[in-house]
Specification:
2 copies of one chain form a homodimer.
Chain A (H helix, E strand, L loop, with lengths): L1 E2 L5 E2 L7 H11 L7 E5 L12 E2 L9 E2 L3 E4 L13 E8 L14 E5 L11 E4 L3 E5 L2 E4 L9 E2 L10 E3 L7 H9 L4 E5 L3 E7 L3 E2 L10 E2 L2 H11 L3 E8 L3 H14 L2 E5 L10 H8 L2 E6 L3 E2 L5 E5 L4 E6 L3 H19 L7 E6 L3 E2 L5 E10 L4 E5 L8 H4 L3 E5 L5 E2 L4 E6 L1
Chain lengths: 418, 418
């Protein structure tokens, strides 16, 4: 570590491992506050729960039948078979949605529809198929049941005062169901990060223009905006800039005022016009803490932090495929950690062929998954890292640790779906 | 099959297998038109591509360098080593985004930055690290390269006139990247299905009310609306109805006018108030073709079709967890098939314990996935099918075919994530 005259850390040209970069990023953003907000239940899909939730009441709050049948005392059916029925008096017929009023005594029963309320005294339900009307007020029962049979107990779905959904849970349709059954119709969720997306490069033209010789269309803005949308961030601004330091300064200064995350792509190679790290170091304090990651693709990645505005700044590779992977491996990784989410489930697959690793670097290998008798075969997607179609042809990626020599044909790998 | 006096098929109380129900559903909806619409690229995330896309131009449309270095003729570097350099005249310095103007002849080279245009005549790039300035107009090169080295050829990412994205592709951020690089900024996607969601039951109160004895909160409307949102459908209307035939008739009649899909949940058990199949058969023509599926959970499922309005009608189980699974296994299955999507990737896991199957029925077994040395262990989530928390505690489900005796501890299963 070194410090320059202004008391800022001087950027040293050492390269971090992915693990080191993640640890530094985590520790830099440690004091960043994660805000929460309350939203309506029908808007909560895809959001991340920001508090543990304790149920204010049991679900169900009354004993329910899972079948159409007769609620009775299980003891009354002891020894009953198809040929030796028991005869019970029917004392009430419950309508769905209405309370059961009369207590079931020995020798009695009550008709209950599916979902209906089990009366006091009864402890089991015999399905209507195992009964027969005997006379106007009684039935014959041909089945022996044990206590609890065909009954959902009070709190069997959600116990009163139990922690039924944990902070960090992704709200899927099933969580919407659980929340609505517990009567929670405003939900505490993490406020999405605001993001400013800046793409730099003198070669960039907007996607609706035809590029001239040497020019290409801006892809990164679209890809990063889509990534942000996928993970629920709020894009505050996108800018495509010529590679001039003053323009970048202005954009980054604006970005840290409005955003939790300022993402600059392009301009982070070792080329002549590399302003990104310099600008981030000048504007943010403590500034850049990672410049270069031993990761393939993604070497020219820059990570910085500004304490006052609590803004994370990152310089991503100019290649869109690499930019997207680094965004996933670092920024989304951090967001998941800070919102207490679990890692996404991976898919296991067997390698179709040998793959060499990059010496001294962690490799993020794109693969497509193909059905096989045992499950899936992972077919490596080869092609230069600048090619966008390598990503659209892939199902996901698998990581090869830097110490590992490569992957062997038939070896089982874990694939993260993209 | 039978026909009643009005010339309608009479519903027979036979139960379909899941496979039969799917085939009937597919064939009933065979002539349903799938409409497409054009949307802006930055709105296309998560949508399904409705046409094969052919690239109007090659990407890149000029040869690009993947490194900062010198573009030259590979033949000039033959036999070159670290100790035996070749000296080349530097005839031009390309700026990023500008055309290369001068043709490289033998003995010459041109400086090209990463992403810059390779000049005519050159066929490879030597990284700047393997060169040294010799005098004002020439450099020493210390590396031997083969033709094509560090060069992205014209059309290497997307060939001109090639089919680069297939109909049915889910548009992920990487597809956004590919579309923007091909200059496509309006995208043909399937128009989402319109859906009407009807929940029936005298026991239902809305989620913001406290249910009385025998009453429960409406969960299905929330769960099904979230499922629709998850898969990009457009919810036209939700209705919670008391279990009266005339109310249901009115709602279904309205639904088939406005929607591709009318979903009724509740009222499809064998209970006394089962109007759903009757109403669907009266309103839709040809009407109900499946009433009951040999599926656990999901037995009381109803499927119907109305040819004139091209509407799919379904009666789902009243239990929200069962309703959600049946919606996934039938409606979403159909939607994927009709939009040419591939099946979602599954995760392989080893069963934690033995699980019995339901005789004569396909079982949809909920499991939670837990990390293990080999990958994942699938832990069966037990609990009555009416319990919503069985779904929120699960990572996904695995299917046990009806002929299969059950699952054995350690057996490998395929888990569809939910």
């Amino acid at each position: 570590m070194g410090w320059n005259r202004k008391g800022k850390r001087v950027r040293l040209l050492t390269v971090d491992s992915l693990q080191q970069a993640r640890e530094k990023l985590r520790s830099a953003a440690e004091r960043k506050k994660m805000e929460l907000e309350f939203i309506e239940l029908n808007q909560a899909l895809g959001r991340i729960l920001a508090s543990d939730l304790v149920s204010p009441e049991p679900v169900p709050h009354f004993r329910r039948s899972t079948v159409d049948g007769y609620a009775l005392r299980a003891a009354d059916t002891q020894g009953v078979t198809e040929s030796i029925p028991v005869f019970l008096e029917v004392i009430e017929k419950i309508e769905i949605g209405t309370p059961a009023l009369r207590m079931v005594q020995p020798g009695q029963c009550t008709y209950v529809p599916t979902g209906g309320m089990i009366p006091e005294g009864a402890d089991a339900v015999v399905m209507v198929e195992y009964s027969e009307a005997f006379d106007e007020t009684s039935i014959a029962v041909y089945d022996s049941v044990s206590p609890g049979r065909n009954v959902v107990a009070i709190g069997e779905d959600i116990r009163e005062q139990s922690l039924f959904l944990k902070k960090g849970s992704l709200i899927r349709p099933q969580e919407i169901g659980v929340l609505s059954s517990a009567g929670i119709h405003t939900v505490p969720v993490y406020k999405p990060w605001n993001i400013t997306i800046i793409s730099t490069g003198d070669e960039l033209v907007s996607a609706d223009r035809k590029p001239g010789p040497g020019q290409i269309r801006d892809i990164n803005t679209y890809v990063l905006e889509a990534m942000s949308r996928k993970y629920g961030f709020k894009t505050i601004e996108t800018q495509v800039l010529r590679d001039e330091k003053s323009l970048l300064e202005e954009a980054v200064k604006k970005g840290i005022k409005t955003s939790d995350l300022v993402v600059v792509s392009g301009g982070s190679s070792q080329g002549e016009k590399d302003h990104t790290a310099q600008v981030m170091d000048e504007i943010a304090s403590p500034g850049v803490f990672t410049h270069g990651i031993a990761l393939k693709p993604g070497k020219p990645t820059i990570l910085a932090y500004d304490e006052q505005s609590e803004t994370i700044l990152t310089g991503l590779p100019g290649h869109p495929a690499a930019a997207m992977l680094v965004f996933e491996l670092l920024i989304i990784w951090l967001y998941r950690a800070m919102t207490h989410q679990s890692e996404p489930k991976e898919t296991l697959a067997q390698m179709e062929s040998n793959v060499a690793s990059a010496p001294g670097r962690t490799t993020c290998l794109l693969v497509s998954l193909e059905e096989s008798a045992e499950g899936y075969t992972a077919k490596p997607i080869l092609g230069k890292s600048g090619l966008m179609t390598t990503l659209s042809r892939s199902s996901g990626y698998t990581m090869i640790e830097s110490g590992k020599e490569g992957l062997k044909q038939g070896e089982t790998v874990r694939v993260v779906l993209l």
